[in-house]
Amino acid sequence: MKKRYMISTIGAIGAGAIAGYLLKDKESRTQIKEKVEQCIASFTGSHEKHHSLLEDAGIPDQVDHQDLAQFENSKMVSEGSQFGVNYYNEVMDENADHNKDL
């Protein structure tokens, strides 16, 4: 074989071995995925923070994107309802307790 093909083959095998080693744990896969998403976001210029529906329930009047449900939740909170905020706090406390147990 030519030297060029040998070097390419060894490089591909080495890259595959490194990728396999880095992606063997779920935690490291998650970290790598987040880093790649951050790099893509920095190149595309989309640095917006996307909130989940649960996070939006905890901060009803502080989100940039407001759909009809979010608008209604904001309106109820401004009228004194704390259902969405309380629900958010309860779920976050449960998640914190669950994470402590791990």
Structural summary, described in words:
The protein has helices at residues 3-22, 26-44, 53-58, 68-78, 83-101. It has 102 residues and is mostly helical. It folds into 2 domains: 3-44, no CATH class; 53-101, no CATH class.
Mean pLDDT: 76
Largest pleated sheet: none
How large is the count of helical segments? 5
| Count of DSSP strands | 0
pLDDT < 50 runs, ≥5 residues: none
What coarse outline follows from CA principal-axis ratios?
elongated
What number of domains? 2
Structural class: mainly alpha
C-alpha-based Rg, rounded: 23 Å
- Which sequence of SSEs, written as H and E, runs from N to C? HHHHH
Helix fraction bin: over 70%
What distance lies between the first and last C-alpha atoms, to the nearest angstrom?
53 Å
Share of β-strand residues: under 5%
Secondary-structure blueprint of this entry?
Layout: H1 3-22, H2 26-44, H3 53-58, H4 68-78, H5 83-101
Task: Describe the structure concisely for a colleague.
This protein is an all-alpha fold and 102 residues long.
Give descriptors for this structure:
single chain; 102 residues; mainly alpha; 2 domains; 0% strand
